[in-house]
Amino acid sequence: MAPLADEFAAVRVGNEVWQAWKRLHEERGWPWFGPDRDLPDWAYMPKPLAGEFPSTLEAVSAALASFEVAHARLTGERTTKQEAAE
């Protein structure tokens, strides 16, 4: 994970960005961390991208896509987007 450390940013548990990450996980059928009350105040998620997005959910989706590309470069794996294009 160390080579990908720059791809993450702190997100305050419970804020708007946190809630968007939670919604994105739900949409994808991914497990979530558990009740917010049981978590630390901050968690690290893929960092947001510069630019305007119509919604916070779309911003975190773009952040995830960017992280997937960085991870794929590091590991040589294909991204979900690359697989869908085939």
Provide a brief overview of the structure.
This protein is α+β, with helices and mostly antiparallel strands and 86 residues long.
Account of the 3D structure:
The protein is an alpha+beta fold. The protein has three helices and two strands. A two-stranded antiparallel sheet has the order 1-2. The mean pLDDT is 89.
How many domains make up the 3D coordinates? 1
Principal-axis shape: globular
Order of helices and strands: EHEHH
* Residues in helices, as a percent range: 40-55%
- Uncertain parts: none
- How would you describe the oligomerization state of the chains in this entry? single chain
Strand order of the largest sheet: 1-2
> Could you tell me the radius of gyration in angstroms?
14 Å
What structural category do the secondary elements indicate?
A: alpha+beta
Topology of this structure?
Blueprint: E1 8-12, H1 16-28, E2 42-46, H2 56-75, H3 80-85
Helix pairs in contact: 1-2
Question: Keywords for this structure?
Answer:
86 residues, alpha+beta, two-stranded antiparallel sheet, 3 helices, 2 strands, globular
